[in-house]
Q: What sequence folds into this?
């Protein structure tokens, strides 16, 4: 260790971190070490679905912490049975594999898809069809599936068996799905990092029809848009189109690292003993928090809150868009996955918002995202809109000052 190094010198420099030293959180509020309070509409990027320090989750975690933290998956873990039963009873799925993160859930889904075909004697069916603007996490397979050049550069050759297409190029999607090597289509029903783009019902149906016609598995990545974020438990429910496989994470653990790959019994039929595994995935502590978070999120009153507050927030943002045409280009997303395509640089807006006490996330296509907890109140939504307006006024002033230099 060099004598002049600062503490953060000892972390990989992979994040452009905001200069806030976080200390504690409570509901929608985040406090830094100097005691400054922020209205947190990032919430770990749609992770803290019930806000910071939710008492129900704290209770579930501490009760379990006194009983049993961890055992290997070579033993039966009752919490896994309990959470998997709840997930299956409330979705298209029959079976679940638990992971520690979203990208591991995606990894599991991709392996499942190839194994599905291999176990039917079709080893050549390996192609995963993914889409531009997608984000599926940071494993080799996940970055290859999403095809984002920024995340692929410098990491050597891409893994074979991945096709990346534009969601608008229906002919290319059809051709790829009809290829004898095609295995699955992987898509986020509402893209998160890609700029909060929601697929239309007809796009969802087109993908389902192509999978059915060609024997492909349809995999939904609902890691960001699932678990109540859009106002229904799963975003796919809006279209009526069900997948064969679905990846979830983020709000599933309310801040505790959990992911899950859900599948129909048929889709998961290749995942036999020894084909996959995880040391930590689905450990008793994670399951206790996951069960508690799921029970809260599935409550009709919470989903009603998402619909009510997101309707209000959108209406207020529409007003802001009319009043600040130089700031807002387009409003996107669904429910409380709110995308705002801004006209000034999105990083500048995020910084100015932070200076004004509002935390918002970035996104591709010059978007900022508001991802408040699902139990956010209308008053907090109003406060956020007020702070965003202050931010826009500051951005206007900064632009004017630049002009006059
Ligand atoms: N998929 C989607 C849609 C995501 O938004 C994310 C994370 O932002 C991931 C996958 C990766 O999840 P994790 O960072 O937990 O690996």
A:
């Amino acid at each position: 260790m060099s004598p002049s190094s600062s503490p953060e010198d000892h972390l990989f420099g992979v994040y452009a971190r905001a200069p806030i030293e976080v200390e504690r959180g409570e509901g929608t509020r985040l406090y830094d070490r100097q005691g400054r309070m922020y209205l947190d509409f990032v919430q770990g990027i749609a992770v803290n679905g019930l806000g910071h320090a939710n008492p129900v989750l704290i209770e579930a975690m501490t009760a379990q912490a006194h009983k049993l933290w961890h055992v290997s998956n070579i033993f039966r873990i009752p919490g896994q049975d309990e959470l998997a039963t709840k997930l299956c009873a409330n979705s298209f799925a029959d079976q679940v594999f638990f992971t520690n993160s979203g990208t591991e859930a995606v990894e599991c889904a991709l392996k499942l898809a190839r194994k599905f075909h291999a176990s039917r004697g079709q080893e050549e069916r390996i192609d995963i069809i993914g889409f531009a603007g997608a984000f599926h996490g940071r494993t080799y397979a996940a970055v290859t599936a999403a095809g984002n050049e920024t995340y692929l550069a410098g990491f050597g050759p891409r893994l074979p068996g991945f096709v990346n297409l534009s969601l608008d190029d229906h002919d290319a999607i059809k051709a790829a799905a009809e290829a004898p090597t095609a295995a699955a289509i992987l898509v986020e029903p509402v893209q998160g990092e890609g700029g909060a783009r929601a697929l239309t019902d007809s796009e969802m149906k087109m993908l389902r029809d192509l999978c059915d016609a060609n024997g492909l598995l349809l995999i939904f990545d609902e890691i960001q848009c699932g678990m109540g974020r859009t106002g229904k438990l799963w975003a796919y429910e809006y279209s009526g189109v069900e997948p064969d496989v679905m990846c979830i994470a983020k709000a599933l653990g309310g801040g505790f690292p959990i992911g899950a790959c859900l599948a129909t019994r048929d889709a998961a039929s290749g995942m036999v003993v020894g084909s996959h595994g995880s040391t930590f995935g689905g450990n008793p502590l994670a399951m206790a928090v996951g069960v508690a978070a799921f029970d809260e999120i599935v409550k009709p009153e919470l989903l009603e809150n998402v619909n009510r507050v997101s309707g209000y927030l959108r209406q207020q943002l529409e007003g802001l868009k009319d009043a600040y045409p130089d700031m807002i280009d387009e409003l996107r997303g669904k429910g409380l996955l709110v995308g705002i395509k801004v006209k000034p640089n999105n990083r500048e807006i995020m910084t100015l918002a932070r200076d004004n006490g509002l935390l918002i996330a970035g996104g591709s296509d010059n978007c900022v995202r508001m991802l408040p907890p699902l139990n956010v109140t209308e008053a907090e939504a109003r406060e956020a809109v007020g702070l965003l307006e202050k931010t826009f006024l500051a951005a206007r002033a900064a632009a004017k000052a630049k002009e006059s230099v």
User: Anything to note?
Assistant: The CA atoms of residues 6 and 12 lie 13 Å apart. The first helix runs from residue 43 to 46. The first strand starts at residue 22 and ends at 26.
